[in-house]
Amino acid sequence: MEDKFIAAHFFSILGEGNVYTLTPLVDASGHSRILVGSLQRKVYCLEYTKGKPCMREIPFTYIPAGAEIISMDAINRSVIQEDYIIGITIIKKDDIRGQQSQFFNIYSDWDLNTDSDLDTVSQNCLPLHLDYVPYHLYHTQARSSDLVDETVWLLSGSDCNIHLYQSDEEGYQEVNCSELFPEFSDTLDQVTLRINILYSSDGKTRMSAVCGEGGSVMVYRVCVQSRPNVTATHTLKWDYPVSSVNLFTVNTNARLPKILQGYNIEDSVPQIPDRHPTHTVVATSLESCYVFRDFPGSCDAYELPESDGHDVVSCCVTCDIDNDGENEIIIGTYEKSVIIYKRKLGEGEKKKKEDEREKDQEEDCRKWYTHGRLKVPCAVLALECCDMIGDGTNQLIVMTSAGTHIFQHNPADLAQLVLHRLERLVDIFDKKMMTTTTTTATTTTTTTTTAAIEQQE
Questions:
Q1: What GO terms are given for molecular function (predicted)?
Q2: CA distance 17 to 402
Q3: Could you give the CA distance from residue 88 to residue 46 in angstroms, rounded to a whole number?
Q4: Residue 439 in 3-state DSSP?
């Protein structure tokens, strides 16, 4: 796998971050920037401008001297313009009284009719005082009582609760979880370290997963067609803290591009199943990582090989890193390693028809192997997969205690992949044209024969 990736760039950042201070920010064109926070209250934007790497500090307001950034998250609410919302949680220490205070700062340009660049957004802050120490900050979609989807914030705290923040006419305020997220309405028996939510393709259900320092993992299935209600729940327990939990499907959700939808080739390309079995990868801090198949419907688990031999697992993401249409599992460790796992298929299974693939994917999520490994100079804190360069493929973003690495695919491999897929597309068009020509010729012959018979009669 090392020869498949090229170290595109390394951003050296003054001040170490933590596992919560790396977040991507996607613009309207689909390209991503990376926001990185340090404990020294500085936030940097990492991006590529005309193919060249660039790093600059973003002067966010309401982060006073002596404050520490705990967690960050960001989202672009619009698909046609830049409408950024950025959340930053901080702890401010008071050296005089020996006390500390916590804040959740929400940055946004409240004028929805104009593009909002980062410099403008960073100056518009809504600070919310917290009476607990913040941990993981997570944004997601929620369906309100009037069936309108909106972006909300979920924030785990030292009080063993998950707090919900919803927008109103004046900004954002904390609301009770019972209406929108009933799975988080009760106080948990541990501090939550990670929150992950995955909606079904039809938007009727969602899976919610949380893990924490007490070693528990809770997974919920929630029906959201009308008022959200929990339909299934499952809990697992370890003796050590669980650092990460991720919900994912084997298939990626890539659809036929709009530019090709008018050529009637839908029957010639693999179809994505309507139902995606949801799987869960659990990364424990001191033990192995596990993949649970169709969780919580099944308790079948598969231990990821070599996942317990690289010190503490600090982070985990799932994405299609090799562009084959299936998601891979990527974990980062304090032993300066990034390990990539891929689902294993037998030779006979590779030759099966596409309409049998869904069953194969349900059965074979127990089979994962080490697909590759990357070494970095320092401990890995966070991982992301996004398109920073703007070439249409995802880069692997690795944040370490010394800075942030950008790994991109080998251009020669990408060129070969693009040529191969163009050849397949040409073959599909050729077969479609041959079928159309044959059908037209048959129709013409039938029409001519029918006309001749009618004349004889």
A1: actin filament binding
A2: 9
A3: 17
A4: helix
Core vs surface per residue 357-376: b (16+ CB within 10 A) or e: bbebbbebbeebeebbebeb
**Of 25-34, 182-191, 266-275, 295-304, highest mean pLDDT:** 182-191
Look up residue 429 and give its amino acid.
F
pLDDT, one tens digit per residue, over 371-380 is 999 999 999 9
- DSSP assignment of 322-382, as one string? TSSSB-EEEEEETTSEEEEEEE---HHHHTS-GGGHHHHHHHGGG-EEEEEEEE-SS-EEE
- At 353, the pLDDT band (50, 70, 90 cuts) reads very low
Give me 41's structure tokens. 């209250």
Residue 52 has pLDDT above 80, yes or no: yes
Range with the lowest mean pLDDT among 265-269, 339-343, 429-433? 265-269
CB–CB of 68/17 below 8 Å? no
Contact between 367 and 344 under an 8 Å Cβ cutoff? The reply is yes
Burial of 16 (0-12, 13-18, 19+ CB in 10 A): middle
Which domain, by its residues, includes 225? 2-456
Rounded Cα distance between 265 and 456, Å, is 41
The structure tokens listed for 261 are 């939808």
Helix (H, G, I), strand (E, B) or coil at 455: helix
Question: What string of DSSP letters covers 8-71?
Answer: EEEEE-SS---TTSEEEEE-TTS-EEEEEE-TTS-EEEEEEETTEEEEEEE--SS--TTEEEEE
User: Looking at per-residue confidence, does 241 or 110 come out higher?
Assistant: 241
Show the tokens assigned to 374: 């990357």
Q: How far apart are CA 162 and CA 47, in angstroms?
A: 32
Q: CB-based contacts of 262: which residues, under 8 Å, 6+ apart?
A: none
81 touches 131 (CB < 8 A): no
Q: How many domains does the chain have?
A: 1
